[in-house]
C-alpha cells in the first residue's frame, strides 16, 4: 500500500506503523467518526479512510496548519508561492533568513512559517522551548527549497486536503474533551507522548496523564487503538502492566540506527493496544 505522507514532519511520526494500524482499523469495521486526540502530523488519520474525523492536539501550531488547509486559508498554490518566495530568501541569506522566520513565527505564529521552519529545521523535528517558542536549529542547507522539494511538499498538501472529503474538524486542546465526545460506532486512535521519554512544551507526560487516559479509554463506548512502546533490550514500559495488559496487545518490532550506523542497530518493540 502507498502511505499518504503529510507535509509536516516530526520525530515521533508513525508512518511505519500505518500498515499494522490499518489492519486493526479494518478489523474494527467502525462506521462512525475517526477520533484522534494526539494527532501530531496526522499521518495515521490521513490514511485511515474515514469520511468523518475529529483530529485534535495540544499543540496549536499543528492544528492551525491543518484547520487552515481545511477552511481554504491555506491552499496548495499559496504553499507553493510562499515556499518559493521564502526559499529564495533562504538561498540568498542562509541562516540569517532562518533566524528571521523563526523570530517572526515566535511573534505571530503564522501556519506557513511553521511549515517553513519544520521543513528547514534540523531533521524535521518539532520542539518548543519552555516559553513555547520554536526551538529547532537550522538544517544548514540554504538551498533547501529546490523546485523538486517544493513540489513534493505541495503534493503532500494536495493529497492531505483530498482525504478531508466529508465532515472533518481540527481542534486544539487536551485529550480529555476529545475522548469524552466519542460515542459507540466511533474509532479512537491514541498516540500519546511516551511515559519516561523526552518531553517539550507540548509533550509532557506523567503517570497521572496515563492514568487519566486509561480511565477514559476503559469507559469509552467507542472502539480504540492505543499506540505505546512495549520494550527494548534494556527496559519494559511499566505502564503496560499498570494499565494496558487487561486489553489485547499486538507487538511490533522495528529497528532504528543510532547515528544512522548499521552497527548501532537497536530494536524497539511497539505495542498496539485494542479493546475489540
Ligand atoms: C507521539 S506524538 C503523535 C504523533 C502522531 N501519531 C504522528 O504520527 O505524527 C504525541 C502528540 O500528542 C500531543 N500532546 C501531548 N500532550 C497532549 C495532551 N495532554 N493532549 C493532547 N495532545 C497532547 C503532542 O503535541 C504530540 O503532537
UniProtKB/TrEMBL annotation:
GO terms for molecular function: S-adenosyl-L-methionine binding; sequence-specific DNA binding; site-specific DNA-methyltransferase (adenine-specific) activity. GO terms for biological process: DNA restriction-modification system; methylation; mismatch repair. Belongs to the N(4)/N(6)-methyltransferase family. This is Site-specific DNA-methyltransferase (adenine-specific). SUPFAM superfamilies: S-adenosyl-L-methionine-dependent methyltransferases (SSF53335). The keyword Transmembrane helix does not apply. Keywords: Methyltransferase, S-adenosyl-L-methionine, Transferase. It comes from Dinghuibacter silviterrae.
